[in-house]
Known about the structure:
Largest sheet of chain B: 2 strands, antiparallel
Shape of chain A: globular
Number of strands of chain B: 8
Number of helices of chain B: 5
Helix content of chain B: 10-25%
Strand content of chain B: 15-25%
CATH architecture of the largest domain in chain A: Alpha-Beta Barrel
Distance between the termini of chain A: 57 Å
Oligomer: heterodimer
Mean pLDDT of chain A: 96
Number of domains of chain B: 2
CATH topology of the largest domain in chain B: Alpha-Beta Plaits
Number of helices of chain A: 15
Low-confidence stretches of chain B: none
Radius of gyration of chain B: 15 Å
CATH superfamily of the largest domain in chain A: Aldolase class I
Number of strands of chain A: 21
CATH architecture of the largest domain in chain B: 2-Layer Sandwich
Strand content of chain A: 15-25%
Number of domains of chain A: 2
Largest interface: A-B, 20 and 23 residues
Mean pLDDT of chain B: 92
Structural class of chain A: alpha/beta
CATH topology of the largest domain in chain A: TIM Barrel
CATH class of the largest domain in chain A: Alpha Beta
Largest sheet of chain A: 8 strands, parallel
Helix content of chain A: 25-40%
Amino acid sequence: MDLYVHPLFEVVRNEKKCVACRACERQCSNCVHAYNPDTGEMEADDSKCVNCHRCVSLCPTKALKIILTDHCFRPNANWPGENINEVYKQANSGGVLLSSMGTPKPHPVYFDRILLNASQVTNPPIDPLREPMETRVFLGKKSQKLERNAEGQLVDNLTPQIPLTMPLLFSAMSFGSISYNAHASLARAAAALGICYNTGEGGLHADFYPYGPHTIVQVASGRFGVHGDYLMAGAAVEIKMGQGAKPGIGGHLPGHKIAGDVARTRMIPPGSDAISPAPHHDIYSIEDLRQLVYSLKAATGNQKPIIVKIAAVHNVAAIASGVARSGADIIAIDGFRGGTGAAPTRIRDHVGIPIELALASVDARLREEGIRDDVSVIAGGSIRSSADWIKAIALGADACYIATGALLALGCHLCRQCHTGLCNWGIATQRPDLVKRLNPEIGAERLVNLVHAWQHELKEVMGGMGINSVEALRGNRLMLRGVAMTQEELDILGIKHAGV
Amino acid sequence: MKKIYVREEWCLGCHLCEYYCANANLGGGNMAKALKGRPVHPRIRVEDDGKISFAVACRHCDEPLCRKGCIAGAISVADGVVCIDREKCVGCYTCILSCPYGAVLPAEDGHAVQKCELCIQTAGGSPACAEHCPNRAIVFEEGGASA
C-alpha cells in the first residue's frame, strides 16, 4: 500500500539469545513476528513494525531491539526523507495524513529554557520531610470580598470548587479513544490520589459512576453521552471548545471503534461514526458560550464548577478574557504540543502556540483586567515531568493537566499509532484481546506511583525555594529565570533572564 | 498457605510463564543459555484455544488424588506443598492419570514425573511464573484469586 516507502524500523534479533518462546509473535497485533517451523527460528517482517516495544519489553531473554533504519535518500537539507515519504504516502492514498499523540517536531520547548530558583542564607530552604508542605488546591472562582448578613455573620458566597490534594489532573481522554481498562486505571488512580480524571467526549461508563467525585465530565461539540445523571455525576463539567493538538478541528471516532459499551456510553448506534463538529453549532460568540455555561450551571443546580477548555492559539489571552467573563469557573488551556488519539498531521504539527507563552500571557491579561480571581487556570499540553509542572505553576497555572505522561505510566511507548486501534499495550484500542493486556490493578498502581513521585519532587523544589504552600508558588515568576531567550520571549513569559 | 492462583481474565496467552518455569527448574540462571535450542518442560502449562487462555499448575489439593494413586509412595505433602521424590518415582504415570487438573506431567527424561512445587527448591520460594507474569494473571497469595 505504501508504495516507494521504505520501512522506518528494523527488528534486530540476537539469535544467540532468542529461545523461540514466541511471546513476541503472540503479543504483536501488527503481526511482525513469525515462527518458522522449518528452521526453528523466529522471523520478522520489518515493514509492519511500529516500534511500540511490546515485544522488546516482554522478551524474556532481551534478545530483541528495534532500530531506526539507516536506509537513506540522497542527502538533501531542503527535502528531508520524512517529507519525501509523506509525499509518497499522499500520492498513494490521496488522503489527509493522520497522526496520533503530540507533535514530534523539534519546536522550541520554553520549559527547557526556564530555570528555577532556590533559597540561600536568608529566607532559608525548608526540609519537606521534616516540615509540613501544603499542596492542596481548590479550583474555581474565588470570592472578591467578605459578606456579612444583618446579624453580622459571614455569608458563604463561595461558588462550587474542585478540591485537589495537589494541583494536577488527568486530562480528557474519551472512552472509545482509550480502552475501558485505561479509564478504569485513571479513575481508580484519581480516587486514590485525591485528584480528578476527565471523561473526554465519550460519556461516562456506568461502571465508573462511583468515581464521580474524582471525575470531570466533558461536554463537547458532539454532545456524546451527555445526560442529566452524567452532568451530576462529576466533580465539575468541562465544555471543550478546543484541543491543543488540533485547534479548530473536531473529532472523528471511526465506526469500527463504536461497539458495545462505547456505543451505549456515547448514546449512538453501534457502528456509526462519532463525529464531533469543529465548532459547537450553538456557540458563535462569547454570549453563546455564556448561555451554555449557565445552562450547565442550571442543569447541575449550581453545584458544579464549569470548566471551559480552549486550545492555545494566537489570541489566547483575549479569548481567555472572554471566557472568564462568560461565567466559567475554570479555564483550561491546552498547548500545541498536547496529545491526541488522532489528528490531521499538518494541524497537529503546525497549528497553535506553546503552552508556556499562552499560559503566561493569559495569566498576565487576566491580572491586568482584574479578573484573575474570577477563574482558575489549568494548563496542559505536554507537561512531561514535575519540573514542567512546577514551572507552569510559577507561570500562573492553578493546576496542570497531564495525559501523555499518564499513558506512559500505563505502558504507552509513544509509537503514535493510536489511530490504527491496534495498541499493543491495551490503551488506545477496543479489541478485547488487546484491552485485557492492561490490568487496571497494575495501571492504577503505576499512576499512583508516578503522581506521588511528582508530588514529592514538587515538595522538594518548593522547600528549596523556601515556600511551604503551593499557593505561594502560583504565579511566582520571581522563582523563574530564562536562558537563551530573546527579550521579547522573556517579556511574554514575564520572567527575567538568568543572572539578573 | 500461599498458593498459585490463576486469573483467566488477565491471561494474555503469552506463555512466558512456561519459559520462566522451565528456566527456574533448570537452576534459574541465564535463560538463553538454559533454553536455547531445546524443548522446554515447564510445570505450568497455558491452556489456550486462541480465544480463552489460562495457566494450569498444581492446585496443591488438601487430599491429593495423585498421592492416593501413587504406587511407590513418591508423592508427599510437606507444609501443604505436594512434592515428588524423583528417586522413588517409578514412572508409572498413575498420578498423571488421576490428577483432575492435568497438572502432573512426565519429566524430561520420561522415567519420572514432575509437577509444580511452588519453586520451594528453585526460585527461593517465590514462584517464577507469578513473579514474571506481565499482567498479574498468575498470583502467589493466600486464600484465593483476588478480583
